[in-house]
Amino acid sequence: MTAPPHTLCAAHHVRIAGIEVCSVTEAEVADLARRAWAQGSGCQVVTANTDILRHAARDPAAKALVDRATAVVADGMPLIWASRILGDPLPERVTGSSLIFSLSEAAAAEGRTVYVLGGAPGVPEKAAERLRERCPGLQVAGTDSPPFGFDADPAAVAAVVERVRASCADMVFVGMGFPRQEQLIERLVEAHPQAFYLGCGAAVPMAAGVVDRAPGLLQRSGLEWLYRLLREPGRLARRYLRNDLVFALGLMVSTSRIRVTTRGGSAAD
Fold first, then answer.
1. Rg (CA), the chain
2. Omega cis (within 30) before 179
3. Inter-helix orientation angle 50-58/77-85, to 10°
4. Predicted confidence (pLDDT) per residue in 51-69, tens digit
5. I need a surface site. Which of 31, 77, 255, 259 has the fewest CB within 10 A?
6. 268 pLDDT tier (thresholds 50, 70, 90)
7. In sequence order, which ranges of the chain are alpha helices (DSSP H)?
8. Do the beta carbons of residue 247 and residue 57 sit within 8 Å?
9. Nearest Cα to 143, choosing from 126, 162, 157?
10. The whole model's pTM is what?
11. What element of type H or E holds 20?
12. How many whole angstroms separate alpha carbon 9 and alpha carbon 36?
């Protein structure tokens, strides 16, 4: 990556659970992409949610992956709530499932190309088709759906990286979940450093229309996780109920203590 972490993203940062989260709007992330393209600088955005914060808090290697990104944005509502408790509110939630569209719109307007990577066979192609429908003039440099577990095979990883490099894509959406997508992005950056990379998890199948996103009211109220849990209980129950919910509650408590001890006031001020 040609620019050091956090230098392209000059916005104010809020420290949440040890992670520096950029105080930016979705529109400002699109502006970041335009600046990166104009400067010929590589860029990596991490869409941090509760699960990513939890991984980073318990695993130094996972935290290092996040820290090396150009920008970290608040994908999860608990990050927004924590920033408010700290008295340094982030402006809005910036989700991968929304960014995949707004960044594609920016790419179309700038004459840039996108590459969609991740998801079951056929999913990235469907996502690319819907992105083209939503963003007239968008050029798709390629799509790829590597088989699950491919990243355990160095030769398979090298093949995926080579396909992205050969595409010369300006924007690469990588939807494989944390930390696998960030680990792959670091390999991609080495081979193709000029691109803008977004680790976006479930945004690829959501863009494809094979996974439904929660209604707007649930998104705004911080209950999108409950909607997804009800849709996929077998896959998400352990993650959401046993792991992330406990961590989110602990985050609210810890940030309240920080507010009281560092600012000499109550968290309700």
1. 18
2. yes
3. 70
4. 999 999 999 999 999 999 9
5. 31
6. very low
7. 26-39, 50-58, 60-67, 77-85, 96-110, 123-134, 154-167, 180-191, 203-208, 216-220, 224-231, 233-237, 245-263
8. yes
9. 126
10. 0.89
11. strand 19-22
12. 10
- CATH number attached to the domain at 13-217: 3.40.50.10700
* Residue entry with tokens 């193709």: 192
Q: Count the Cβ atoms, other than its own, within 10 Å of residue 18.
A: 11
Using a CB cutoff of 8 Å and minimum separation of 24, what contacts does 248-256 make? Answer: 248/50, 248/78, 251/16, 251/17, 251/50, 251/53, 251/78, 251/82, 252/78, 252/81, 252/82, 252/85, 254/17, 255/16, 255/82, 255/85, 255/86, 256/85
State residue 219 phi and psi, 5-degree precision.
-60, -50
H helices present in 111-238, as ranges:
123-134, 154-167, 180-191, 203-208, 216-220, 224-231, 233-237
Q: Give the largest CA-CA distance in the chain.
A: 55
Do the beta carbons of residue 175 and residue 118 sit within 8 Å? yes
